[in-house]
Structure formats: C-alpha cells, structure tokens
Design brief:
This protein is an alpha+beta fold. The chain is built from 12 helices and 17 strands. The chain has 3 domains: about 10-170, Uridine Diphospho-n-acetylenolpyruvylglucosamine Reductase, domain 3 (2-Layer Sandwich); about 175-255, 2-Layer Sandwich (Alpha-Beta Plaits), CATH 3.30.70; about 260-335, Alpha-Beta Plaits (2-Layer Sandwich). About 30% of the residues lie in helices and about 25% in strands. The two termini are about 20 Å apart. The model has no long low-confidence stretch (mean pLDDT about 95). It binds flavin-adenine dinucleotide (FAD). Flavin-adenine dinucleotide binds near residues 29, 32, 68, 92 and 101.
Length: about 375
C-alpha cells in the first residue's frame, strides 16, 4: 500500500474518516525509527512528515508550538540557539520527529529530576480515531480545565489519535554541565551512591551506572554553583566512593546509559522498576548471560540478551517492575508482546479510554497485543 501523506490537519482528518468508513487500519509514522517495535502487522501507513515546521516559538515565554513531523534534531537546534532546552532530554536518531518522540514518551537521563514528556506537554491538536479534530490544553501551564488530555497523548504510541500540532514548555539551558565519575563500583554500591547523591543538597540532575563499573553523576547550572556542588559531593559520598571529574568524553558514557545502544544486535529489553531493586535485577539477569546499563539512578535498566525467552520479563515482574521488549527478531516480536501486561482492572480502564478515542479500532493494529 502506498504511504499516505496528509499536508494538514484537515487532510489527516479526512484520511481517518475514510478509514473509519472503509474499515482500514492506520499506523501513524513520524520518522519511522521505531517501526520495528511491536508485533508485525498489515496496515496503511500514514506519514506525518509533511506536517512539519515551527508554528510559534516565544523564548521569553518559554513556549514552543510545533507540527509533529518536524525533525527532533531541528527542534533541539532551535531551542539551543536561544540558550534553552527541552527539559525531558529527548533522544533519537537522525530521522526522529518531535511527534514520534512525544507519542513514544521518550525521556533521557534528566527525567529523574526534570520530569517526563507528559510534564512538559502543554497542549495538543489531535485527530481522534473518530475522525474529529480536538484541541486540548493550551500555551500556558495553567490553561487546563476538565481532563488533562495532553498528558494522555504523551506515550500513547499512536493508539488514541494523530497529534497534528503540539505545544511544549521549554526551559533555560544550564550554562555549565559537569560529570563526576566513580570507578569500579559493583551494582549495589552504585545504586546506594546514586541514591545518596540524588537525595543530597548537591542537586544532582542525573545518575547512571554502566556494568563495567562506571558510575556517572551530573551537576548542571551556573558555573560558580556547579563548582561549589562539585566540591561538596565527594564529601557527601565519602562513605560510598571516590569521585573524579570528567570532561567532554562523558557525553558518550551518558548516551550509552540513556539509550542502551551498546546492547544493539541483542534481544533488548527495557525495565522500569524501583531503583532499590535494580542491583538485584542485574544480578539475576547476569546469571542468564545478559549485559545491562542503568539510568535514572536505577529506575531504568536496559538489558541485552541473546536468548529469545521471556525470562527477563518474568524476573522484572517478580521484582515489581515492568519490562518492554524493545528490539528482537521478527519471530519473537510475533510471539511476545512488546508492552508489559497490566493488572486486569487497569487493562480494562485503558481499553475503555482507548475506545472513547477510537471506537472503530482504526488505530488498533495488533502491534501491542490484545485489541491494541
Ligand atoms: C523502547 C524504545 C527504544 C528505542 N530505541 C531507540 C534506538 O535504539 N535508537 C534510537 O535512535 N532511538 C531509539 N528510541 C527513540 C526513538 O527513536 C524515539 O522515540 C524517536 O524520537 C521516535 O521518533 P520517530 O519520529 O522515528 O517515531 P516513529 O517510530 O515514527 O513513531 C513512534 C510512535 O509514535 C507514533 N506517532 C508518530 N507520530 C505520531 C503523531 N503525530 N501522532 C500520534 N502518534 C504518532 C507512531 O505510531 C509510533 O507508535 C527508542 C524509543 C523507545 C520508546
């Protein structure tokens, strides 16, 4: 099937209305960098690439309104040019769009202190699965009455509707960012050091740990403040580790912890769990031959394994967490749901919400198992 490319929200609305009438399944695509995520499916692709461009950017008001097909890299360059940033630290590849990033709920290492996509998404214009355009939220933080629908769209993976425009809160970019590194800590000691650092008055904005014994702590802000906090942190952590200051090279280490990209080529899982269980998780998955990387002070663990079994998911669930199957051969993706299952009550509620937006199941492609 040829890819459909709407030029504006009205075009998009018509495509959805036609799909409702014709019983067609639609899959929304930004850059398509996550096309291999979830079960294989037969669908009509709708590319949002042509819905691109900045609608409004007011640096003084810290607000950016943009169309979904705009490249993430262009959005980041734009705000960086004004000394600002998207605080949830999104990441992706060269094709990634801002719409795909928001729909996939992508947040980087800073999430642990700055919040997630949904905390920074102020407003959306959406074409629902009913073929209706609705606007929710606005361009200021306190502009929401009724249900806060932008929060629902963040991380919805194209299952509720197509985002045709979105407004994000931006924040000033720190003048200076420093990384302090502890070498040689095992996972449990690293978790304790990260927890102590994140809870301290040194105002650590991100904490990550790589299996080869590299623990990263990030301090950002004005130069004198960064220097003062870098000076007190070794004393705060004196019972846990010794720290050294790292330069530019640490950007690659952060990237590794944030994306788990060193695990590429293996069956890759992403675990979200209480940080205090992260070390036990790494101990158990290592017995299966897995490699891993920890971010968010232990709250997110990327796991790479050659085995196509579901052992990783079982272990994560046993520790009270959730496991997402991120990258796997097509056979495994057909067999194993990408998303963790929810408790029956939560699943029923999520399905009721989904059906309110998409009663004809236009966006229910089977990609995520069950009706979705
Ligand atoms: C589990 C996971 C693993 C990742 N792994 C990698 C990785 O290995 N390397 C890397 O570079 N990046 C990775 N990413 C980041 C990914 O590249 C980003 O999510 C990226 O910014 C997505 O942008 P895209 O435009 O390519 O999205 P797409 O892949 O096109 O879409 C992502 C999702 O959003 C939906 N969507 C897209 N546009 C819209 C819209 N306008 N309205 C509603 N829904 C929409 C799609 O239907 C799809 O479900 C990963 C993300 C996740 C969640």
């Amino acid at each position: 099937m040829a890819i459909l490319e709407p030029r504006d929200a009205q075009d998009l609305r018509q495509i959805v209305a036609d799909a409702v009438a014709g019983g067609t399944k639609l899959e929304l695509r930004g850059g398509g960098s996550r096309a291999d995520f979830g079960a294989p499916r037969e669908v009509q692709i709708v590319s949002l690439a042509a819905l691109s461009g900045i609608v409004d950017y007011d640096p003084a008001e810290l607000v950016l309104t943009v169309r979904p097909g705009t490249l993430l890299s262009n959005v980041l360059a734009l705000v960086e040019g004004e000394g600002q940033m998207l605080a949830f630290e999104p990441w992706g590849d060269a094709a990634s769009t801002i719409g795909g990033t928001v729909a996939a709920g992508i947040a980087g290492s800073r999430r642990v202190t700055a919040g997630s996509v949904r905390d920074h998404l102020l407003g959306v214009t959406v074409v629902s699965g009913r073929g209706e355009i609705f606007v929710a939220g606005g361009k200021v933080v306190k502009n929401v009455t009724g249900y806060d629908l932008p929060k629902l769209m963040a991380g919805s993976w194209g299952r509720l509707g197509a985002i045709a425009e979105l407004t994000l809160k931006v924040l000033p970019r720190p003048r200076v960012t420093a990384t302090l590194i502890a070498d040689g800590l095992p996972a449990e000691a690293a978790y304790r050091a990260m927890a102590r650092a994140l809870g301290s008055h040194a105002d650590v904005s991100a904490a990550a740990h790589l299996r080869r014994g590299v623990t990263l702590l990030r301090i950002a802000g004005f130069a004198p403040s960064v220097e003062a906090r870098c000076a007190v942190l070794p004393d705060i952590l004196k019972d846990h580790c010794t720290l050294r200051r790292d330069g530019e090279a640490s950007a690659l280490l952060w990237r590794e912890a944030m994306t788990g990209e060193a695990l590429k080529g293996r069956v890759k899982w992403r675990a979200h769990l209480l940080p205090r269980h992260a070390a036990e998780l790494t101990r158990r998955v290592e017995t299966l031959g897995a490699d891993w990387a920890m971010d968010w002070g232990g709250g997110r663990v990327w796991i790479g394994l050659d085995d196509e079994s579901e052992d990783i998911r079982r272990i994560v669930l046993d520790l009270g967490g959730e496991a997402t199957l991120v990258d796997a051969p097509v056979g495994m993706r057909s067999r194993v749901p990408a998303m963790h299952g929810s408790a029956p009550g939560v699943s029923a509620l999520a399905d009721r919400v989904r059906r309110a937006f998409d009663p004809a199941d236009v966006f229910a492609t089977g990609r995520f198992g069950g009706a979705a």
